[in-house]
Amino acid sequence: MHGLLFFRPCLRLSIFATLINGKNMFTHNRRSWLQNSACGFGSLALGSMLAEQHAGAAPAATHSLTAKQPMLPARAKRVIFIFMQGGPSHVDSFDHKPQLINSDGKSIDFTGVRFGTFGKVSQRALMKPLWKFRQYGACGQHVSELFPKIAEHVDDLCFLKGMHTEGVAHGPSTLFMHTGATNQVRPSFGSWLMYGLGTENQNLPGFVQLQPSDTKGGPRNYSNAFLPSIYQGTAIGRASRSIDQMTIDHIRNPQLSPEDAESRFTLMQRLNKAQLDRRSDNDSRLEAVIKSYELAWRMQTDAPAILDLSRETEATQQMYGIGTTETDAFGRQCLMARRLSESGVRFVQINYADESPNPRWDQHSNMPKHMDHATATDKPVAGLLADLKQRGLLEDTLVWWGGEFGRTPFSQSNNGRDHNPRGFTVFLAGGGVKKGFSYGATDEIGHEAVEGKVHMHDLHATILHALGLDHEQLTYRYAGRDFRPTDIYGRIIEAVFA
Fold first, then answer.
1. Cα separation, 97 vs 439, whole angstroms
2. Are 477 and 58 in contact (CB under 8 A)?
3. Is 322 found in the same domain as 296?
4. Do 47 and 196 belong together in one domain?
5. Residue 68 domain-assigned?
6. Could you read off the pLDDT of 18-49 as tens digits, one per residue?
7. Nearest CA among 281, 275, 273, 269 for reference residue 60
8. 138 and 182 share a domain?
9. What is the number of structural domains in the chain?
10. What pLDDT, in 10s, does the model give residues 309-355?
11. What is the DSSP letter of 37?
């Protein structure tokens, strides 16, 4: 869906066929000629799309983006995932550890996952948080000076403080967070949601990634993998591009009138469907490709208006920090996410990401840099939470904030922290989760999850449950095996639901 249908290679043949037929240059049956000639060559273009589907996928019933009934009573209808790439430090933000403050500079033994040999015991000096904590809201949640705006919403948030995950480096952990695997090509979480629930707006993609990074998993983080291609994510913008380029390329062809564009699209779809009718194997993959073309066409109606943030009031834009240098870029992402979700997009991911070797929150030797990233994201996220709530959308929209892992309580390079997949914090909001609630805990210094432990598979299972999907029953047969989003793992954390 990176371009419209009339840019596809088989279009040139379609136009040629139209010109010939218009002049009656052939005396034999035009329908037969189109089927045997045009569709024959047109299949090359379709074949290039179908090649993306892995061999061995089992035939399935007709796949569609039509909204489907959930398997279970659903608390939420949609998800907004706010991805903090690089691993924000939980012990400097939401996981208050007095013992870490009191033990600042003390060297203790750690069993390493990054330094020296895996599993090696080594002395490391503890480093206290660089920012002061204080309690907020009726729930009394501790939040540091990094996030004063988000702190104002703690009575609407559900903190998971016993998170742990797979992978130590950014690439594997980011891929695992998105797909539940590090060593296989698996469908992304958003693609599973699309497969299970479809979308509420047939004129928009059901799964959108805003400003995604091309590294640390790249397109695999929003890939459909072996699911039909109709369930792949749609990238709007790129982390490497300016926020002004957060749009859909070639959404319209300025050289064609609406009538000419529709005529060409109609002809192409007739050719594609004629090819589908000629096949005897009821190829659902071919049908999925045709439907993706149809979606690209329909997007021309709704997408331009939804992507136009100037339609929002000045007060709303200011609430997200748009117009202020530090918060403008991320504020635009957050506001775009609200507009897409409000319009029926099932899963929207906001990416605070870039293409550098050490992404965003990855401060191995410069923890004060965390304040720059917090300043860029704090007000926009708070604005999104407030906007969703005042519009009545927070009740059935599940907001998920977090990174691929946390950071260590000990210092690295004297003024930094290393990666920590053993214990970290994420928060949820809306979608039926408890408000002003904290679940799980790390040890007294914030190094390792010890109570209410939640693995990334468990978080995936819990989010699916909130949307009415059973993670054990949501399966797709491929290469002789029934795959599911949490593989053979995952448990629902019932305690987080109201």
1. 15
2. yes
3. no
4. no
5. no
6. 333 443 433 345 544 444 444 444 444 444 44
7. 281
8. yes
9. 2
10. 999 999 999 999 999 999 999 999 999 999 999 999 999 999 999 98
11. I
